Amino acid sequence: MFSSEPARTGLSLTVAPISAAEHLAFVRAQRSVSFLQTPTWGRVKAEWRSESLGWFDGGQLVGAGLVLHRPVPRLDRFTLAYLPEGPVIGWTGEIDAWLDPLAAHLKEHGAFAIRLGPPVCTDTWSAAQVKEGIADPGIKRLTDLPSEWADPVGARVAGRLKDAGWLPQSPKDGFGVGHPQFKYEIPLAGKTEDDLLRGMNQQWRRNIKKAAKEGVEVTVGEDLKAFHDLYVHTAERDRFTPRPLRYFETMFAALNAEDPERIRLYLARHQGDLVAATILVRVGAHAVYAYGASSTEKREVRGSNACQWAMIRDSLAARCDVYDLRGITPTLDSDDPHVGLIQFKAGTGGQAVRYVGEWDLPLRPMVYRAFDLYMKRRGR
After folding, report:
1. Domain spanning 121-149+173-355: which superfamily?
2. Which residues 6+ apart lie within 8 Å of 366 measured at CB?
3. CA 133 to CA 306: how far, in whole Å?
4. What is the CATH number that goes with domain 14-117+358-377?
5. Buried (b) or exposed (e) across 162-195, using 16+ Cβ within 10 A?
């Protein structure tokens, strides 16, 4: 997380558009940034209008954000200004100095509301706590357990946003209209491969060994069509709506143009058959498992585990601080069908993490209410 702060009390920051080149140079200077806050991500989300904004302390660029603009139906001059997992500013101190000029700039340029997702966590729970919670019939959610670690920065950011009139958008299950509030992450800093294997549960270690014994081969490739065919198969089996092949082609072309190490496709094959495929995105020290697919046949050769282990090892070799397995629901109820997701990810060791979540600031309340009603009617 970027943590630069205004150097003195009462510092006045200004917000203005910056070029994609300026934005990318700023991102490259940070230890860790969400790939959703890279300038090229706007090209991937082509259905939104995008722009890069910078925060200036005098003439010095001290913060940056990718803003995705969504117009209001029949009122195209107004937009929802969305900063997913951003912006990249100093969240550890007085955030009004950063967000007030953002609100003023966006309102002046036609935004009816701002939605942002501070990259700041509030709580973490260990894999052992997750396991114990699932086994306890009296525990239904992660938040029923005391967190292993509570981040005072996250609590302060949430409090300041609420006091300033921002509205929380994260639903009870952690998945809303944007990006999940609860994630599963494996800390990598200071670890070795042996450390990471020891942190996994017995089933995960067994599956990794099983894949190797069965001769599963994981390669980094470019066959997006093969990935997409398997992804569509996975979507049909698991009952979700797949993205079109063109989306992934655009994603790879855009992110690879920004940085040749930004995105990778991992393909696991067994005797020539594609049994699993995954996509890894890395910005600085933050590696993200973005997409995955697996075949229904040959599940016993454990291609998905082999892909995950290959991505974890490569992230470790790249000196990443964290391997991000992305969203989970906070349920620990053994009768909830979603509990399998957190069980699978907790098997890697690591920790469940709650972030501050996404928040809205209405800038034009009447338009915001109309937009909210429209989104509720169409199921968002």
Report:
1. Gcn5-related N-acetyltransferase (GNAT) (3.40.630.30)
2. none
3. 27
4. 3.40.630.30
5. eeeebeebbeebbbbebbbbbbbbbbbeebeeee
What are the structural domain ranges in the chain? 14-117+358-377, 121-149+173-355
Determine the distance from the C-alpha atom of residue 371 to the mean position of all C-alpha atoms in its chain, rounded to a whole number: 25
How far apart CA 281 and CA 290 sit, in angstroms, is 7
What are the tokens at 249? Answer: 């082609």
Nearest-angstrom CA–CA distance, 367 and 371: 6
N-term to C-term CA, the chain: 29
Q: How many CB atoms lie under 10 A from the CB of residue 260?
A: 9
Q: How far is CA 242 from CA 188, 223, 230, 233, 277, in A?
A: 31, 17, 11, 9, 15
pLDDT digits (tens, 9 = 90+) for 48-60: 999 999 999 999 9
Using CA atoms, how far apart are residues 283 and 24, in angstroms rounded to an integer?
11
Sign of the CA dihedral with 34 first, then 36, 39, and 41 last: positive
Same fold? 14-117+358-377, 121-149+173-355: yes
The tokens of 77 are what?
């001059």
Q: Output the pLDDT for position 1.
A: 46
Number of helical H runs and strand E runs in the chain:
12, 16
Q: Which two tokens stand for residue 371?
A: 């937009």
Amino acid code (one letter) for 157: V
Q: Where are the alpha helices (DSSP H) in 109-150?
A: 127-135
DSSP at 88: B
What value, to the nearest 5°, has the Cα angle with vertex 87 and ends 81 and 93? 125
- How far, in Å, are 34, 101, 112 from residue 70 at the CA level? 20, 20, 10
How far apart are alpha carbons 169 and 117 in whole angstroms? 10
Radius of gyration of the chain (CA): 21
77 DSSP β-pair partners: none
- Interval 272-322: pLDDT, tens: 999 999 999 999 999 999 999 999 999 999 999 999 999 999 999 999 999
Residue with tokens 């702060």: 5
How far, in Å, CA of 76 to CA of 74, rounded?
6
